[in-house]
Specification:
InterPro entries: Anti_prolifrtn, BTG, BTG-like_sf. This protein is an alpha+beta fold and about 160 residues long. About 40% of the residues lie in helices and about 15% in strands. Strands 1-2-3-4 form a 4-stranded antiparallel sheet. The radius of gyration is 16 Å and the shape is globular.
Amino acid sequence: MSQRRGSPRADMLPEIAAAVGFVSGLLRTRGCVSEQQLQVFSGALREALAEHYKHHWFPEKPFKGSGYRCIRINHKMDPIICKAASQIGLSLPQLYQLLPSELTLWVDPFEVSYRIGEDGSICVLYEATASKPVSSYGMLTCKNQMMLGRTSPSKNYMMAVSS
């Protein structure tokens, strides 16, 4: 953690690890995927996310590129999850059985959060302190846009996991 506060960070490993752990945990919960398959899936997803985000990671402006980094299942499977799942032989129908039909996972510098369902609560999986204050005043992020369009009030349940 001290390394984070001392200098600007360009790496995204803690955030990707949180996202990968969350998606792998969803697969583990169903009990249909072996631990060995989960390890292969996790490695493939970690590599795919790092490659996908490498030119879209801006620690100095964490909300920039937020929509691009958003992993979404909305009756259509996110292609990055499909790619990783194909490494362990999971088909698209199997993924639909194992994962929520409505899932949004935001992977941003210093924060990873998710929502299950269109009107579900947003829960924080990972949160770190930026090296300098980041102003979000006047910024409309992917996550904030979704919250503005909400038809029912958000429940104030929060789950935070940090390292």
